[in-house]
Amino acid sequence: MRTVQTLRGEIDTAALGTTLMHEHVFVLTPDLLQNYPSGWDEQLGVEDAVERLRRLKALGVDSIVDPTVVGLGRYIPRLLRVAEQLDLNIVAATGLYTYDTLPHQFDFVGPGTVGGGDDPMIEMFVRDITVGIAGTGVKAAFLKCAIDRPGLVPGVERTMRAVARAHRLTGAPITVHTDAHSQSGLVVQEVLSSEGVDLERVVIGHSGDSTDLDYLKRLADAGSLLGMDRFGLDLLLPFEERVATVAALCAAGYAERLVLAHDASCYIDWFPLGAPAEMAPNWHYEHISRDVLPALRERGVSDEQITTMMVANPRRYFEHTEAY
């Protein structure tokens, strides 16, 4: 039996069921939250998250994979308050989210610094996977890092290589936030391959922001899963183009390389309160179930292919977990 760690403990990978592979619950800035808490009510935030996720479960979704890590406000005790009230699996991550610089605590320790030595991020990530996160007992099931329009700047490369090395030590799979417009998924594959990473264990996140089939097929042909994971963010790419791209890839035989999600959250403090719903009214957990899947079926995507993208591929991602 293959298993995966969730907030409610270890489960059989078959129990993941229908899975959204890139959803946040809370995206918060801890320093600001602690010092300027105006607009945030902890109890109401938890209650709202529980209600949103209960509605998602009622639509037939069994699991969400939450890539909220350091840099996005990961706080497991808050997530546990949500998870204990749900019949839905939440899978937690470890890693670090930055587009450029690292937290200052890494300025003088680790590779390329005055202090030198091994990168402390590696041990941190490994501990989250093997022991648990911050004394909660919750173990991370996958690793997360990011690259965006600034490109492979030193802080991004150092984080990516630390993630790769933690992956090799634990077998935990990797998800990478990428900028599809600069085709940074190719950079990710080059760096991770140089660290000996099996690209079949990697999700190239936000690939669905691109309609460039040549670019997407190139990523998939190298072995990676493509995160078609920003449905609802129509400001970045309209609904019709996102759906058409997935349908075209399925028609070309790439369903086994695709995973679906929204990159949505219950609360994100990057925007004024209420702004996400106003600027992107479809950017919520229910959009795929209610709107995207019917649209894909209308364009010839079969139920078997949908099951592949939402059940089989997530399960396979979490089953390749041997260290190597």
Task: Itemize the secondary structure elements and their pairings.
Layout: E1 3-6, E2 9-12, E3 19-20, E4 26-27, H1 30-35, H2 42-58, E5 63-65, H3 76-83, E6 89-91, E7 93-95, H4 120-130, E8 142-146, H5 154-170, E9 174-177, H6 184-194, E10 202-205, H7 213-221, E11 225-228, H8 239-251, E12 258-260, E13 267-268, H9 275-279, H10 287-298, H11 303-317
Helix pairs in contact: 2-3, 4-5
What's a quick, concise take on this entry?
Helix content is 38%, strand content 13%. With 324 residues, the protein is α/β, with parallel strands linked by helices. Strand 7 (93-95), helix 4 (120-130) and strand 8 form a beta-alpha-beta unit.
Report the helical percentage.
25-40%
CATH architecture: Alpha-Beta Barrel
CATH class, anyone?
A: Alpha Beta
Discrete helix count = 11
Please state roughly what percent of the residues sit in beta strands, choosing from under 5%, 5-15%, 15-25%, 25-35%, 35-45% or over 45%.
5-15%
Could you say which structural class the secondary elements and strand pairing correspond to?
alpha/beta
